[in-house]
Structure formats: structure tokens, C-alpha cells
Specification:
transferase; pyridoxal phosphate binding; binds pyridoxal-5'-phosphate; Aspartate Aminotransferase, domain 1; about 400 residues; 3-stranded antiparallel beta sheet; lyase; kynurenine-oxoglutarate transaminase activity; Aspartate Aminotransferase, domain 2; alpha/beta; EC 2.6.1.63
Length: about 400
């Protein structure tokens, strides 16, 4: 083997990955997997039916427009115009790509240079009530801050930022002329008492915001890997440049099926049957079930306002982790490995999402996913009940 062929510098240190490591652990069929954010509920029937009908049409099995299949960008423009004050140009202000991650990739590649200031990490809240600390956040901005990545509903604590909190963020972005990449993949998954607001609709924010969505999260079809970016043409055109020089286009049948699924729900948005309304209702019941289960074990989960994850400080369980081998690993990593091995229940360590600054605050937390069918939650309940009995 030639010694000249080695890794590129830009991937150095990126080889280990929490998803790969913990997904492998949870692959044992005897483990109940509440780790990776993967729905095991069925996607809506009409979404699956549309895809199979479309696969039978020859022309829809060939390449389509690179920046987004025409019928899909039209549907997305029609849907999102309902939330923005302005009309959205489907060809110039929307880009369809490979999942929301593809959108993040295009945005970062197209707009951020190596050596630019790192995106602001605003994850430090006053932890009693998880409100954003405006002073803490302001202290992270300076005139060189080029971009922030915003997540609302926030993953992993499931926080939905309030109007006031978003205004604080918007004011800082405007003051420091900062780009906002707003990852809103859980936009429809918001529970009673909360409302998802788009930061791009705040005065002065449209021209500096890229809003990202995901078909996987919208229609419970994560395997479709379709996502989109919406924003002003002066920003989107740079993401389009990245796309035309990398992946070029996304799967045509998936895009057409997604467009047709959107039209079904766009026409009934005030109807409880609309998937944008019915899925959060279904998930709120599952969320509450998970809250009670974790509480029955003696935990105090942080009840999420949105999204489909719930986190809890597991150090309260006082588990004996002495036989977990790698003592340098954070507590949450060791705990999840211990729980997967000994209780046959898997989750994700929250510190995997944190940088060095916020790791300490979250090292004792693990994350459970609750977009699971009742039989999966029943199996988790059995495990937790047996565990509770053992403790007492
Ligand atoms: C906050 C957030 N953004 C983006 C993604 C990626 O979405 P997609 O599968 O559409 O690439 C995920 C997936 O879990 C996510 O949780």
C-alpha cells in the first residue's frame, strides 16, 4: 500500500462518533433502543402510497432540477409563505438537499471560511428553569462572529425558544451583522402551551437567516433524507453553488412523493387530521408516558416543550459503574454502556452534543427518544418496572 495515501487533514480527530458507537451497542435485538432519534411508528399511509405510485412513472425515475424538483419547491413555497410576511420565490429562495444535514453542510461550506469565528454556543442557560441567559449569550458575540446555529425546538433539551428569547438572539445577530442558520427540523413537534416561532420572521432577520427543515422529521420518514433551506437569494445562491459542485441533485421520486404529501396536508392545515397537527398530539401522549416512567425510577426528567427526546440526570440513580472499563470516559457514556449491558435499555449520552465549555453541565444527563410505537414503550416500561423493584 502506498504511504502517500493518508487521510486529509480536515477529517483528523473526527473518526470516533457517538452515533456509530452507541448504535452498534444497541444493535443487539434484546436491547430496547431509545437511543438514536429514529421513529419506529409507521409513516402516514398516503406518504408511502404516493411514493409507490410515483415509482411507476418512468420520467420521475430520472434526474430532476438540481436545486429542487419543481413541484416540491412550489409546495414548500406555498407552505412556508403562510408563516413569512413575504412571498417566497421557489426557484431562488429554496434549495432542496440530502436531509437537513445536507442543508447545514451547504450553508457552512457556502458561507463560512476556515478560520472564521466558530458559531456561538448559547447552550448555557440559567439551569433552574432553562431560560436563555441574555448576558451570557451577549458575552459570546463580538464583531468577528460570523454565524450562529440556532436550534428551536432545541435538541437535546427540547426547549422551544420564546418570542422574547428569540428577540434577544435576533437583536444580537443584527447588532453584530451575524448570519443565523436556524435548524427547525422539529418545527411541527411542539407540545401544549408552546408555539414555534421562526426567527426569520423577526424584523431585520429574513435577509440574514437560513431556515432549515427536514422531510424525515416532518413525515416520520428519516430514511428519505430530504431537507431544505429557505432564505433570501443573496444567501441561498451560495448554497446552490455548493450543491451544483457536490451532490448536484436529490432523488426525484422521493421529491415528487414529498411534494404530493405536502399538498395533502397544506389543504387541511386547520384540520386535526393534518399530520402537522396529529403527530404532535400523538407524541405528547408518548412524552408524558416517558416522563412518568422515568419519574417512577426516581429521576427528574426535563420535560421537553418540543422534539421527540427527553433528558434526565441519571446520577440520581447511583448506579455502580465500577466495572465499566474506560475510566476516562464521561459519566454519561459509562452510564449508557452500563445500562445497555445490564438493563438492555439504550439511550444517548448528552455530553456527546456539548463542547468543552458545556460538557460539565450535561455530563450526568442521558437522552431517551420517545417517537416509538406502544409495543416498544411497553418493553421499556417492563425494564423500568423491574429495575424499580430491584432498587426497593
Ligand atoms: C436538530 C437536528 N438537525 C438535523 C438533523 C438531521 O436531519 P436529516 O435526517 O433530515 O438530515 C437531525 C437529526 O436527528 C436533528 O436532530
Amino acid at each position: 500500500m502506498s504511504l502517500k495515501i493518508i487521510n486529509a487533514k480536515r477529517i483528523e480527530g473526527l473518526d470516533s462518533n457517538v452515533w456509530i458507537e452507541f448504535t452498534k451497542l444497541a444493535a443487539d435485538p434484546s436491547v430496547v433502543n431509545l437511543g438514536q432519534g429514529l421513529p419506529d411508528i409507521s409513516p402516514p399511509i398516503y406518504v408511502k402510497e404516493k411514493l409507490s405510485e410515483i415509482a411507476a412513472i418512468d420520467s420521475l425515475n430520472q434526474y430532476t432540477r438540481g436545486f429542487g424538483h419543481p413541484s416540491l419547491v412550489k409546495a414548500l413555497a406555498c407552505l412556508y409563505e403562510k408563516f413569512y410576511q413575504n412571498q417566497i420565490n421557489p426557484n431562488k429562495e429554496i434549495l432542496v438537499t440530502v436531509g437537513a444535514y445536507g442543508s447545514l453542510f451547504n450553508a457552512i461550506q457556502g458561507l463560512i471560511d476556515e478560520g472564521d469565528e466558530k458559531p456561538v454556543d448559547g447552550k448555557k442557560w440559567s439551569s433552574s428553569d432553562w431560560t436563555l441567559d441574555p448576558q451570557e449569550l451577549a458575552s459570546k458575540f463580538n464583531s468577528k462572529t460570523k454565524a450562529i446555529i440556532l436550534n428551536t425546538p432545541h435538541n437535546p433539551i427540547g426547549k422551544v425558544y420564546t418570542k422574547e428569547e428569540l428577540q434577544v438572539i435576533a437583536d444580537l445577530c443584527i447588532k453584530y451583522d451575524t448570519l443565523c442558520i436556524s435548524d427547525e427540523v422539529y418545527e411541527w413537534l411542539v407540545y401544549t402551551g408552546n408555539k414555534h416561532l421562526k426567527i426569520a420572521t423577526f424584523p431585520g432577520m429574513w435577509e440574514r437567516t437560513i431556515t432549515i427543515g427536514s422531510a424525515g422529521k416532518t413525515f416520520s420518514v428519516t430514511g428519505w433524507k430530504l431537507g431544505w433551506s429557505i432564505g433570501p437569494h443573496h444567501l441561498i445562491k451560495h448554497l446552490q453553488t455548493v450543491q451544483q459542485n457536490t451532490i448536484y441533485t436529490c432523488a426525484t421520486p422521493l421529491q415528487e412523493a414529498l411534494a404530493q404529501a405536502f399538498w395533502i396536508d397544506i389543504k387541511r392545515m386547520d384540520d386535526p387530521e393534518c399530520y402537522f397537527n396529529s403527530l404532535p398530539k400523538e407524541l405528547e401522549v408518548k412524552r408524558d408516558r416517558m416522563v412518568h416512567l422515568l419519574e417512577s425510577l426516581g429521576l427528574k426528567p426535563i420535560v421537553p416543550d418540543g422534539g421527540y427526546f427527553i433528558i434526565a440526570d441519571v446520577s440520581l440513580l447511583d448506579a455502580d459503574l465500577s466495572d465499566m472499563k474506560d475510566s476516562n470516559e464521561p459519566y454519561d457514556y459509562k452510564f449508557v454502556k452500563w445500562m445497555t449491558k445490564n438493563k438492555k435499555l439504550s439511550a444517548i449520552p448528552v455530553s456527546a452534543f456539548c463542547n468543552a465549555e458545556t460538557k460539565l453541565q450535561f455530563e450526568k444527563f442521558v437522552r431517551f427518544c420517545f417517537i416509538k410505537k406502544d409495543s416498544t414503550l411497553d418493553a421499556a416500561e417492563e425494564i423500568i418496572k423491574a429495575w424499580t423493584r430491584q432498587k426497593s
